[in-house]
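Each field is set out underneath.
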Amino acid sequence: MKVVIVGNGPAAASAIEAFRSVDRESEIVVLSDEEFPTYAPNCMENVIRDDISKEALFYKGGEKFYERYRVDFRPKKEVIGIDNKRKVVKTKDGEEISYDKCLLAAGAYSFIPPIDGVELEGVTTAKNLYDAYRIRSRILSGKVRKAVIIGAGPIGIEDAETLRHLGIDVTVIEVFDRVLPKMLDEEMARYYQKPLEDEGIEFFLEHIVTAIHGKEGQVEAVEVKRRGTDKNFFIETDMVIISTGVRPRTYLVEGTDIEIHMDKKLNKPIGGILVNEYQQTSDPDVYAAGDIASGIDAWGNHRWIALFPPAQQSGYVAGFNMAGKRVKNTGLVDYNAVKTREVTAGSGGVFEDAEEAFTVEYKEYLVKVFLKEGKVRGYQFVGVPRYPRLNTHNPLIKAFKRKIQTWEEKVLLDKGLGLETSGVLYHFFLRLNKEFKEVHRKLVEDMMVRGLASTSQEVPLLQYDE
């Protein structure tokens, strides 16, 4: 059997690992429009700062990954379409590559709004490794004193904080009324935005960039207006980063009978390539995973979720099924986190149709849980490091060699308040659709988040006296 994988991101890498765990003999061909081995797509701000090792960036092991799993990796081989009747994929250079099974895992591309001036030097997106290297190169050239970022989503916010950390004056323009509009509600967004403003980042919410201006091909300013008004003003800048979202590469199946996620009433696309719980498209020999696909979420609905964890999850499912092992996707959840030095944020699930929400504040942590029919529908988390902690790596601290005397003391000290811990534990309730009982509410209200981990046994970690 010959398997052709279009794309080389997290979904593709996960599919390869799953496939090879079942089938060691079949041929695997990976086609990528980039020259790099699989890399962590959520670390582009680290590349800009140059504070990530090659081992961490190329997290699957670089070129050795393809050797280990016996993969024919073909970099800089851009695919422009598929002919599923003839079972071939078509490349930009005119080649046709046949397959028995095909996985479309080409991800999404940066959406660039129709703004005059986007072609100027110094205007860029910030989604892939080429973008990150381009931004870093321009900063190192000494040309960048001021930067404007269009869009206050996760990538825009992380880049804003990164550039400010590098000493650049940063302005963020966002069309919605808050930062991280798809992750946080108004209350949580305000709490998150304040430390970034204190750090020196300027925000213009509910504003639109109408044009980008330059001289001799170089960007010099953006023209901005408040949403709903006609009064324009200008912001000088040496660089513009467009971070206005992404779109799935559904053009790969144009002209085929492979279904796209559509709003049937409006007859318009609302997501990626439609897949079932096995990651199969409407053609059973063509699979799709990652940002290119609209999969089935934890509540049984088709949704397009362009995030790293769901890409890995759907990639594994596709890989197993292409190898002949029937594995269902347990349901995707849009679990996301934003990494900045001054403040952290995380969220998961959906919030709009919740019947109840409660918020808990503990020191620097703010957690909001959304419930429906007694179960967690979603959560939001913001942490502001206002309370410095002892650095346990400091030699002076180590010299004291303070030891925790009892297991109980260790558990009580480790509340599990970290962003990733909180996210994973709430993710447990979302993914497994587990009932959120009164004892769980009590644990959250007391900020004993770590205690939620014992719910698999239905025995709470902590006992409350009546």
Summary: The chain has three domains: 2-109+247-322, 123-244, 350-457. The chain has twelve helices and 27 strands. The radius of gyration is 24 Å.
